[in-house]
């Protein structure tokens, strides 16, 4: 059987959704789901920079290499949308996705982001393999909703 990819998670106003097609969960062979879970997985209250009692419960059953802890999610839920915090968020994306480089899934990850309006930001994550763009993942973050726990 051929690899059908990961279950496809897509960005939605309330977090993330699965896509159903003909009664089946849609799969995707890109890096979208890995990026989505890396950036929005774990516990929103976990700062992901120190050992914390707020780490996601699933981390207790794995090892350090497989923990899901998101610096990005913590930043966008705790800091106001600003140019300075956009830079922090982009740096956090790079750190949260570093496992992809360390695991040799890709060679480089390039991050860009812009403030779309006073509530939202748009990010692009480019995944490079052998110095060629393999995947470009775009997502919108309702920063204000994240800060308000919506």
In short:
The protein is of the alpha+beta class and 150 residues long. Helices cover 27% and strands 30% of the residues. It is built from five helices and nine strands.
Tell me about this structure:
Helices cover 27% and strands 30% of the residues. Helix 2 packs antiparallel against helix 3 (83-96). The relative contact order is 0.14. The protein is α+β, with helices and mostly antiparallel strands and 150 residues long. The radius of gyration is 16 Å and the shape is globular.
Instruction: Note the run of SSEs as H and E.
Output: EEEEEEHHHHEEEH
Shape: globular
Helicity range: 25-40%
Could you name the ranges where pLDDT drops below 50 across 5 or more consecutive residues?
none
Write out the strand line-up for the largest beta sheet, numbering strands in chain order. Answer: 7-8-9
Mean pLDDT: 80
Q: How many E strands?
A: 9
Number of helices: 5
Throw out a few tags for this protein.
single chain; 150 residues; alpha+beta; two-stranded antiparallel sheet; 5 helices; globular
Layout of helices and strands:
Elements: E1 6-7, E2 9-12, E3 15-18, E4 20-21, E5 24-25, E6 27-28, H1 32-40, H2 71-78, H3 83-96, H4 98-102, E7 108-115, E8 120-129, E9 132-142, H5 143-147
Antiparallel strand pairs: 1-6, 2-3, 4-5, 7-8, 8-9
């Amino acid at each position: 059987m051929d690899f059908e990819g990961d279950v496809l998670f897509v960005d939605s106003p309330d977090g993330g959704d699965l896509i159903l097609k003909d009664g089946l969960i849609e799969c995707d062979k890109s890096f979208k789901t890995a990026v989505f879970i890396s950036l929005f997985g774990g516990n929103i209250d976990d700062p992901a920079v120190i050992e914390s009692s707020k780490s996601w419960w699933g981390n207790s059953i794995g090892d350090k290499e497989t923990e899901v802890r998101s610096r990005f999610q913590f930043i966008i839920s705790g800091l106001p949308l600003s140019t300075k915090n956009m830079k922090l968020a982009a740096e956090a994306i790079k750190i949260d996705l570093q496992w992809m480089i360390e695991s040799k899934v890709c060679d480089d990850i390039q991050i860009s982001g812009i403030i779309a309006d006073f509530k939202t930001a748009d990010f692009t994550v480019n995944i490079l393999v052998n110095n060629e763009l393999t995947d470009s993942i775009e997502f919108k973050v309702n920063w204000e909703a994240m800060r308000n726990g919506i």
